[in-house]
Specification:
alpha/beta; Rossmann fold; 2 domains; 6-stranded mixed sheet; 4-stranded antiparallel sheet; globular
């Protein structure tokens, strides 16, 4: 009995000594990162997720540090040549945040070249340019995350429906809740009734509105519209104009290139004219009008233009559909 008791005491003492030794070792052991593959699958997943979070935070901090506060778009001394052809010869302009800036010019003036440089699709030969505070040459990736580009032709998939086009782009951009975003944009651009139809059945104005809606997925700070109403009928142009105005109302900065003077007059907060590779004038519509001599007041009988007649018959409410069946009723409503 006594021997058995002593054996039990010895066993307990050894266990206490073993535990004390382990505690002491843990106290002095340096904390190290577990080897790859160590721990359970859940622990490894949490570790990788934590590392990705830290890397993203560091990347966001670095991106923020590289951003320069100021106008949404800043262009200084931009030059571009194609062999011996000088397209841009020192272009300068600024675009304020949340405004619509129209870049006017004839065909071949270099408007699209400017847009390509600002959207990082083309490198300038000289000069500097920044978009949303990021230099287009040194921080192209950050610029691409801040912008959206809508070219001269609607880039939509005609096989898919309008809703499917929006959902597809949302999924490609890894945006949460793509279905909800698609429904919001369809409602915003008055496309809900046609959401389930194939885009091949859409009119030109509807395709353009869908194209612009797709460009807004991801909430870009700046959107480039390169001649958005080229080839559209008068009614479709009005639809696109209303969509562009809504962009600015929601705080998006819009750079619009066009060769239609009335389009710039209707939409732009500031207008710049690009000619012979340079900006020859830049200002508000009122400022540009003051460059000419005061107009003389004359009373003349003004005949309605063909566009006035067209809109009076078809309607200018901006909604696609069949023409009104009663032209006389349309004229009475217009009057």
């Amino acid at each position: 009995m006594i021997a058995s008791r002593y054996t039990s005491y010895a066993y307990i003492g050894n266990k206490v000594l073993e535990m004390t030794t382990k505690v002491a070792q843990l106290a002095v052991r340096p904390r190290t990162t577990p080897e790859p593959g160590a721990g359970t699958a859940e622990q490894r997943h949490r570790s990788r997720r934590g590392q990705r979070t830290v890397m993203k935070v560091r990347t966001d901090m670095q991106t923020t540090a590289n951003r320069v506060q100021g106008p949404a778009i800043h262009v200084k001394g931009l030059e571009k040549s194609y062999k011996k052809l000088e397209v841009l010869r020192g272009v300068d302009f600024d675009v304020a945040r949340g405004s619509i800036f129209a870049l006017l010019g004839s065909n071949g003036a270099g408007k699209t070249t400017v847009v390509k440089i600002l959207s990082t699709l083309l490198k300038a030969d000289a000069g500097t340019a920044s978009v949303d505070g990021f230099d287009v040459a040194t921080h192209a990736a950050a610029v691409r995350e801040s912008i959206s580009l809508t070219g001269q032709f609607a880039a939509v998939d005609e096989i898919l429906s309008g809703r499917e086009n929006l959902v597809l782009v949302a999924q490609l951009r890894h945006v949460r809740y793509p279905g909800t975003i698609a429904e919001d944009l369809l409602d915003r651009f008055s496309l809900t009734d046609a959401a389930a139809r194939k885009v091949s059945t859409y009119s030109g104005g509807m395709r353009r509105r869908l194209d612009i809606a797709m460009s807004l997925i991801g909430n870009p700070q700046v959107i480039f519209l390169d001649e958005p109403t080229a080839g559209l009928d008068p009614q479709a142009r009005i639809e696109v104009w209303r969509a562009v105005k809504e962009l600015a109302e929601h705080g998006t900065t819009v750079l619009l290139t066009t060769q239609y003077l009335d389009e710039a007059e209707q939409l732009a907060d500031r207008i710049a004219i690009l000619h012979d590779g340079r900006i020859i004038v830049n200002g508000t519509l009122t400022e540009l009008q003051q460059l000419l001599p005061p107009a003389k007041v004359e009373y003349v009988e003004k005949q309605p233009t063909l566009e006035d007649v067209f809109l009076a018959i078809v309607g200018d409410d901006g909604l696609d559909g069949d023409a009104r069946s009663d032209p006389a009723s349309a004229r009475t409503t217009k009057e």
